[in-house]
From TrEMBL:
UniProt-recorded Gene Ontology molecular function terms: nucleotide binding; oxidoreductase activity, acting on the CH-NH2 group of donors, NAD or NADP as acceptor
Keywords: NAD, Nucleotide-binding, Oxidoreductase
Glutamate/phenylalanine/leucine/valine/L-tryptophan dehydrogenase C-terminal domain sequence ranges: 148-349
CDD domains, per database record: NAD_bind_Leu_Phe_Val_DH
Pfam families to which the protein is assigned, alphabetical: ELFV_dehydrog, ELFV_dehydrog_N
Family stated for the protein in its record: Belongs to the Glu/Leu/Phe/Val dehydrogenases family.
Organism (species): Thauera humireducens
Protein name, as recorded: Amino acid dehydrogenase
Record InterPro entries: Aminoacid_DH-like_N_sf, Glu/Leu/Phe/Val/Trp_DH, Glu/Leu/Phe/Val/Trp_DH_C, Glu/Leu/Phe/Val/Trp_DH_dimer, Glu/Leu/Phe/Val_DH_AS, Glu/Phe/Leu/Val/Trp_DH_bac/arc, NAD(P)-bd_dom_sf
Domain of life: Bacteria
């Protein structure tokens, strides 16, 4: 495979291939850009069908982290790592130790955090072999002490972002009576739904699992709908909090919502779908801007946790979105495109 000429290769600074015979480790660490600070990003373990797929994934995701951190005004660059393998059957202490030793050799240019297939416990284990992992400290929260889980911060940032988007598109300061559909009531989505309910919103929820739906119905008075029904609901806001690529050729024509604002990563199936939303008068809050609460949380953990400073930083998501919305309005460009331009101005400066 010709790595340098891949479109996903963009302008990566460093890509490291790691293997360890004894533990069976095969991993790739990608540092996209470190202008603003060390490259921080999740370590994903996944049974990729091919090495090509793993390379493309790590290149795409590490680049995304540069944009996300720059937009959130963090002194961090963008990076990501992938371990090729099934986390259920192939993740052993020896494999994690070998991966951690590889991180240590990079001397802090890349800092790993949990991601799909890895856990806070895995990160904590790796601290025996490296200093360069994040998202591991127990810290106080409203619900009691919790470990590095960034979901509550992500949910709060998404809530702030929905308020900003509603203000921009619907001209409303209050969420009282606002109709919101939440796709996916997992860690982030459920917490977000709770905050929306407390602010007076009316909720519709969907998920592929029954249990969180029953809970959302009981606890939040949410109306439960089938996964395929969520797109066409007569609501004000559609909040995707489940999976990527859900804004596509088949779902966009169904949307009645005037605002799409949720926590899921990579919501646009392709960049052109951002233009499609704009054409239909739907305001899209770019995913990596609105869901930055998690990375902001991890960053604050590294610089010394101060809850008030963390909250203030997360609330800055509103300013970021307002800047994007205003520029998109003036320049008549899709919000995702404008977000990328602003992020580039920040990290290329
Ligand atoms: P999660 O796994 O806890 O929740 C996702 C929920 O979506 C689950 O309940 C799942 O059953 C449901 N789901 C999956 N497929 C679905 C479908 N087709 N229709 C409806 N529901 C479906 O994950 P999470 O941590 O809550 O993250 C949610 C999204 O936000 C993901 O896209 C994630 O990448 C993104 N995100 C999360 C964080 C964070 O801090 N956790 C940070 C940034 C971005």
């Amino acid at each position: 495979m010709a790595v340098f000429s891949l479109s996903d290769f963009a302008d990566h600074e460093q890509v490291v291939f790691v293997s360890d015979d004894k533990s069976g480790l095969k991993a790739i660490i990608a540092v996209h850009n470190s202008n603003l600070g060390p490259a921080l990003g999740g370590c994903r373990m996944w049974p990729y069908a091919s090495e090509d797929e793993a390379i493309r994934d790590v290149l795409r995701l590490s680049r995304g982290m540069t944009y996300k951190s720059a937009m959130a005004n963090l002194k961090l660059g963008g990076g990501k790592s992938v371990i090729i393998g099934n986390p259920r059957t192939q993740k052993t202490p020896e494999l994690l130790a070998a991966f951690a030793r590889a991180l240590e050799q990079l001397n802090g240019r890349y800092i790993a955090a949990e991601d799909s297939g890895t856990s806070v416990a895995d990160m904590k284990y790796m601290t025996q072999f490296t200093r360069h992992v994040a998202g591991i400290h127990d810290k106080p929260s409203d619900a009691g002490t919790r470990s590095g889980d960034p979901s509550p911060a992500t949910a709060y940032g998404t809530f702030i972002g929905i308020k900003a988007a509603v203000k921009e598109r619907l001209g409303r300061d209050s969420l009282e009576g606002l109709r919101v559909a939440v796709q996916g009531v997992g860690n982030v989505g459920f917490d977000l739904a709770r905050q929306l309910k407390a602010a007076g919103a009316q909720l519709w929820v969907t998920d592929i699992h029954r249990e969180p739906l029953l809970q959302a119905g009981k606890e939040l008075g949410a109306t439960v709908v089938a996964p395929e029904e969520v797109f066409g609901l007569d609501v004000d806001v559609f909040a995707p909090c489940a999976l990527g690529a859900i804004l596509n050729d088949s779902t966009i024509p169904q949307l009645k919502a005037k605002v799409v604002a949720g926590a899921a990563n990579n919501q646009l199936a392709e960049a052109r779908h951002g233009a499609e939303l704009m054409k239909r008068g739907i305001l899209y809050a770019p995913d990596y801007v609105i869901n930055a609460g998690g990375i902001i949380d991890v960053y604050h953990e590294r610089i010394g946790f101060d809850r008030a400073a963390l909250i203030k930083h997360i609330e800055g998501i509103e300013d970021n979105l307002m800047e994007i919305f205003e520029r998109a309005r003036k320049e008549e460009r899709p919000t995702g495109e404008v977000a990328d331009a602003i992020a580039e101005e920040r990290f290329k400066r």
